[in-house]
């Protein structure tokens, strides 16, 4: 299973106008709820915040990778938001983020499968120029193309 196979095309947005982490997570969770990937929006958000309480998910270079391992996730997938303006997030470099890659992980997939997905994303983000390509993506199609070419 590759990252390109679990990107939820219904939950990829650009120019998301959000003022803070709560608004970003709410918007992405709503998209996942609307397409049936998440059966209980608030329970999923609560599980994401539970993970957020354990450590920073802002990995630097303007990117955050929050994740929720939850029994209310019907199908493991990834949602992506490129924000209209950078926002504050707990990051390892102390800088704001503009791209959020949200993992919604089914409780049954929470171990090996999740680790493999995270590893693939980490390798992708470590590639020269990938983060800047994310930042410069102008629309949903450009974002999806970046994930398809992994």
Concise account of the structure shown:
It contains 6 helices and 6 strands. It is of the alpha/beta class. A hairpin with a 2-residue loop joins strand 2 and strand 3 (63-64).
How are the elements arranged and paired?
Layout: H1 3-6, E1 7-16, H2 21-34, H3 41-52, E2 58-60, E3 63-64, E4 67-70, E5 77-87, E6 97-106, H4 112-126, H5 130-136, H6 140-148
Parallel strand pairs: 1-5, 3-6, 4-6
Antiparallel strand pairs: 2-3, 5-6
Helix pairs in contact: 2-3
Radius of gyration: 14 Å
Number of strands: 6
- Can you tell me the overall shape? globular
Helix content: 40-55%
Description:
It is a single chain. This protein is of the alpha/beta class and 150 residues long. It has six helices and six strands. Helix 2 crosses helix 3 (41-52). It starts with a helix and ends with a helix. The mean pLDDT is 92.
Overview features:
single chain; 150 residues; alpha/beta; six-stranded mixed β-sheet; 6 helices; 27% strand
